[in-house]
Amino acid sequence: MACTARNAFLECHAGTTAEFCKLYAGAHKDVVRGVRWLGPTARIVSFSSEKAAHGYRNTLLLTDIRNRSSLPFREVGAEGAPMLGIRASPLGRYILILLRGAPSEIWAVSQHHPLSDIFF
Q1: How far, in Å, CA of 29 to CA of 48, rounded?
Q2: What is the reported pLDDT for 25?
Q3: Number of domains in the chain
Q4: How open is the CA angle 99-88-5, to the nearest 5 degrees?
Q5: What is the pLDDT of residue 19?
Q6: Which residue, 31, 25, 28, 36, is CA-closest to 85?
Q7: CATH number of the CATH domain containing 67
Q8: DSSP characters for the chain?
Q9: What Cα–Cα distance (Å) separates residue 21 from each residue in 14, 54, 108?
Q10: Exposure on the CB side of residue 84, measured as CA atoms within 13 A
Q11: pLDDT for position 87
């Protein structure tokens, strides 16, 4: 299966069955800038980052492609730095969030908290 982003939509294509499905990422109000698989699961993480009145609006969603549902994962108000990219650990348990000019963040997927809040 392959996924790509087009505007606020996530498009997935199943190569073995030649099926094509369009997933609407409901909380993405802006252009989706990145998509990553969460390990060997049927979940993907996507993000958008757009300039807002008081900084940047960074949105991160977890999407289950089996039932086509998306949930907001990291909800923060206006931030001073835009989100540049995301990386997922091989098993999909952690997400690395890359921010321009700011420290990177590592989040635990199961707990919806940055690791700095959990361990320190």
Answers
A1: 8
A2: 45
A3: 1
A4: 75
A5: 58
A6: 36
A7: 2.130.10.10
A8: -EEEEETTEEEEEETTTTEEEEEE-TT--S---EEEE-TTSSEEEEEEEEEETTEEEEEEEEEETTTTEEEEEE--S-BSS-EEEEEE-TTSSEEEEEETTS--EEEETTTTEEHHHHH-
A9: 8, 36, 28
A10: 10
A11: 93
Its domain, for residue 62, covers 2-119
Query: What is the pLDDT tens value at each position of the chain, 120 positions in all?
Result: 566 566 556 666 555 655 555 554 455 667 778 888 888 888 888 888 888 888 898 888 888 877 878 888 887 778 888 999 999 999 989 999 999 988 888 988 887 667 765 444
In whole angstroms, how far apart are CA 95 and each of 5, 18, 67, 72, 119?
19, 30, 22, 14, 16
Q: Are strands 113-114 and 94-99 parallel, antiparallel or unpaired?
A: unpaired
Q: Which amino acid is at 10?
A: L
Question: What is the structure's pLDDT at 9?
Answer: 61
